[in-house]
Design brief:
Elements lengths: L1 H76 L12
Length: 89
């Protein structure tokens, strides 16, 4: 009877160790996958931020150019101020 009990305990211990190793292995694998995914997403976010900054700079430059062009057009089409002297006399 004692021998059977010891065998059952040994089988239980072996099964528990095997399952524990399996779970640890799966956790390590999943942790590695999540770390890899996190790094990929971090790189993608940095690229997106860099792209945004580039687009923002280009947009700001275009806005400044359009403002300058508008000022030039407004200066060309602004009538001269009225003269205080009469041109007929």
């Amino acid at each position: 009877m004692l021998e059977i009990k010891m065998q059952m305990q040994q089988k239980y211990d072996d099964d528990l160790k095997r399952i524990t190793n399996m779970v640890e292995s799966k956790l390590k694998e999943e942790s590695a996958n999540l770390s890899k995914k996190f790094e990929e997403e971090r790189v993608a976010r940095l690229k997106a931020e860099e792209n945004y900054k580039s687009i923002q700079i280009t947009s700001n430059e275009e806005i400044q150019k359009l403002k300058r062009d508008l000022e030039v057009v407004n200066r060309r089409h602004t009538p001269p101020p009225p003269s205080s002297s009469c041109t007929i006399l």
